């Protein structure tokens, strides 16, 4: 079976890795992965990339995410001990009411689901993150089974292994339309004018998916990233090396942080995300990256590193916040989700099973399901929702 996967983010790369060299139906899978830039250059490469199942509001979705954490552990084991995957724990605190109460309630609900969540003392926080200086009197939670993935490196590893298994990887070329024969999708037209024929086309193009699917008359309920004030864009910044200052993921009221494989820090903040859209001028992005660094230095007094890179990010946000995964019409399958970093490898496993036979675990997430649109929260905090990111590179000196 000829399979063309559009989009080289974590979903597309994990799918290519999972399907290359395998069988689909009665024949071998011939996989082609197409990306408009390079694998990992979009949302997956700029994401805060917190691995978690920290939302107890929907037990079924929570279970999907718990299974996804296990899939990451198995996948990382296949690569040895890669520096791009770490289970470091996540520490979060709240210092005002009613957020203190909300955090305590979340910990209790997660614990009742069997998730590793606990409230900790200030002394225990100092043991976990000795360099941090949180506000006095905060309520602090710790989630020991959570961690992070460094998206660019993880995507490169998956795409590379897919290539080694026989997948073809086409970079720097967008897919401009879906090709049709009657109701069947027969492949894609590339920006070069060439056609790629396929028995199955999988759209994993993140926030670009709606535009691609529209060329075949197929709708996809994603938040409009182009609209002024859209929740889809955000901002992350990465510092130079700051070894030993941070052990794991941290969510504070003013700033979220995690380490990088090189010893730097990835920084993000809810209020600065909310103030960023596609119309935000580069000078404002630069100023917000500097603000992220100032906040990091307030929490980590020993931080002397500067911002090396910042990115405006555009997240694929389904209208109800849940994955959009499944067949749309003959020859066409969609795999688009927020929290793609957490869900990617597990969704790839489920989709591979789905292509052989209907996968019950994906039934609640079919793209043609009735959806009650509600503005999903894009931010990656354990009190506020979840984040991810894509976009234009920036450089700063702060």
Automatic annotation (TrEMBL):
Gene Ontology MF, one: oxidoreductase activity
Domain (FAD dependent oxidoreductase) ranges: 2-353
Pfam families tied to this protein: DAO (PF01266)
EC number per UniProt: 1.-.-.-
Source organism superkingdom: Bacteria
Record keywords: Oxidoreductase
Record keyword NAD present: no
Disordered: annotated segments: 373-398
Stored SUPFAM superfamilies: FAD/NAD(P)-binding domain
Name of the protein: FAD-dependent oxidoreductase
